[in-house]
Amino acid sequence: MVGRNKRALTCRQIELAILIDDEPNEKIVYVVKFGICMTVCLTAIEIASIALLRAWNSEVFAAISGISGIIFGILIGRKR
To answer: Quick one: angle between helices 58-79 and 26-48, nearest 10?
Structure first.
């Protein structure tokens, strides 16, 4: 049993080394950077809405959630 676990761990380390050496596509990098900037901007808009209007803007929050989901999906999909 111990030998099997060591072999499985070694295979996983090799897979991770292969993934790390693989350069990301330039378009994916731009999409992730754009998504992060949009998330920061929309978060600022949501904070301003709460501070100035004293109201929660559900449309802005939905946009933040959607963009965050897209970014996480890209990053998780890229690792596989």
So the answer is: 160
Total structural domains within the chain: 1
57 within 8 A of 32, measured Cβ to Cβ: no
pLDDT in tens, 13-28: 556 555 565 677 788 8
- Structural domain including 53 reads 24-79
59/69 Cα distance (integer angstroms): 15
Considering the domain boundaries, does residue 5 fall inside one? no
Calpha distance 67→38 (Å, rounded): 8
Q: Is residue 52 part of a domain?
A: yes
